[in-house]
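Justification of resources, computational component.

The compute hours requested in this renewal are based largely on the per-chain cost of generating structure records like the one below. Each record pairs the submitted sequence with a full structure-token output. That output is archived, and it is also reused by downstream analysis tasks.
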Amino acid sequence: FKRIFTNWIKSSWIYLLWGQPWIWKSTIVLQIINSLKDNLKIAYFSGEEESSAINSRYKRLFGENSKFKIFHTTLLEDILETLKSNEIDLFILDSIQTVYSVNSSWVAWSVNQVKYCSENLSEFSKKNNISCIIIWHIQSHEK
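The structure output for this chain reads:
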């Protein structure tokens, strides 16, 4: 991760990490953060886990407290406002299906709400040269 993301993470790019629940996507992102924390200002937005749980997992994995900002919110407008008021190089959104906007009539978890929020985050990231990693839980229907 360190070699790939330190050399290849691009300003204003959006990276999508998707898969079924419980396959360690959030833990993979913490490994990426640990590799980049000395070079980038990082914010982690969680719609599912409390900040204390993320901090606890980070400390368990790396033996130290997290040195990145963690926010617990599911409102798109709060995320965008927080990004505007903080100097951030990379933000993580865990996970996109929990995010909703007051400007969209679709319910959270709906495909249309995910699309709306993703498009807004992408536009904001590109306009402000901020990189983003979006986690998306995809439920498999295979039997």
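DSSP finds five helices and five strands in the chain. The mean pLDDT is 87.
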